[in-house]
UniProtKB/TrEMBL annotation:
MF annotations from Gene Ontology: catalytic activity
Name assigned to this protein: Amidase
Residue ranges constituting the Amidase domain according to the UniProt record: 3-221
Transmembrane segments: none
Pfam families, per database record: Amidase
InterPro entries linked to this entry: Amidase, Amidase_dom, AS_sf
Amino acid sequence: YSFMAGPDPRQVWTQDQPSVDLQSFDDSDLTGVRLGVFLPWFNHASVDIVQSCNQMLDSFKSLGATVQEIDIPDLDEIRMAHAVSFVTELLTSLKTNFKPFRQPLGLDALVNLTLAQQFKGDDYVKAQRVRAQLIRKMSQIFQNVDAVVTPSTARTAPPIPPDALKKGESDLSTLTELMRYAPQANLGGFPAISFPVGYDAQGLPVGMQLMGRPWEESLLLRLAYTSERFFARHPPMMRFSLLPN
């Protein structure tokens, strides 16, 4: 992060970025750190995920952090605006050379891109209005909290059907669960980090996500690093060592 962030003399639009500061990276005293949780959204995940994330919140509180409830309105509108923006911008990036990509792309990607062609200009404009409202609302929230806490996903990793390896898979229900907590940071442009905090009953990893203010990645990295002292990693069920024994 410290190598990639900050001003780049070759790119004019990066000159206003603040310098990177990681001096407090290993400071585990979280006194004064305020974490915000929108409970209806936070709890809209599987039982194992919510339990693991609550345990990590308790661990952060034991180091001095405070947790307070917040409200993030219009979750469904934000989700739709994110979907419209994402697929429209993806299609635009491929528009000039879409035909050559048809063969290499999976059927699932082709379905999404074909649907994106149905959106009109006013759909995209309306999505950007929602984006602007989201940025304003999140900026207000970050006046009272330093980070917003959610699970990384609403469910752990699903099994891949055998035929999906060749043909791809279009499963909007599963995709919605996996993407439930992504639109706010992705659409609004806020920094976010995901890190492991536990395992579900099947031994699959559970993640927690933190969203922060622009240019305050250092706090997110500090919290994620601090979480490692409370999380005991298990070897993956399938593991291939790249190092000699």
